[in-house]
Amino acid sequence: MSQDQVSVEVSGGDVVISGEITRRERAGVLRRATRRHGRFEYCTMLSADADPDQVSASLVDGVLTVRVAKAETARPRRIEIAAG
User: Fold this and answer.
1) Using alpha carbons only, what angle is made at residue 56 by residues 55 and 62, rounded to the nearest 5 degrees?
2) Which among 7, 19, 35, 53 has most CB atoms closer than 10 A?
3) Which residues does 17 contact at the CB level (< 8 Å), separation at least 6?
4) H or E segment to which residue 59 belongs
5) Given its phi and psi angles, is residue 62 left (phi above 0), alpha (psi -120 to 50 degrees) or beta?
């Protein structure tokens, strides 16, 4: 797939990945078609501690990677203990 065939959107608390896989033209006799083609859509909910403004996506060698960062308030922080 190429970048123009896939779309990643953040809407509210959801990440929606959609696109279209086109069928490649082949010469000769095709005995079996095993690859999917056509439109697709995948939707998943973000966790409560996710930061929707910190979503990134990369497409390398046909593999889509979507990364979602945690919000600063959700990360653990060390509390200093005061003496006496």
Assistant:
1) 135
2) 19
3) 6, 7, 8, 41, 42, 43, 64, 66
4) strand 50-60
5) left
- Which CATH number is associated with domain 3-25+32-74? 2.60.40.790
Place of tokens 């697709």: 40
Residues 17 and 5: beta-carbon distance below 8 Å:
no
Q: Give per-residue pLDDT as tens, 21-38.
A: 887 776 777 666 666 778
Q: Is the model's pTM score more than 0.85?
A: no
Here the tokens at position 6 are 């896939």
Q: How many residues can be counted in the chain?
A: 84
Q: Which residue positions in the chain have pLDDT lower than 70?
A: 1, 26, 30-35, 74-75
Greatest Cα-to-Cα distance within the chain, rounded to the nearest angstrom: 84
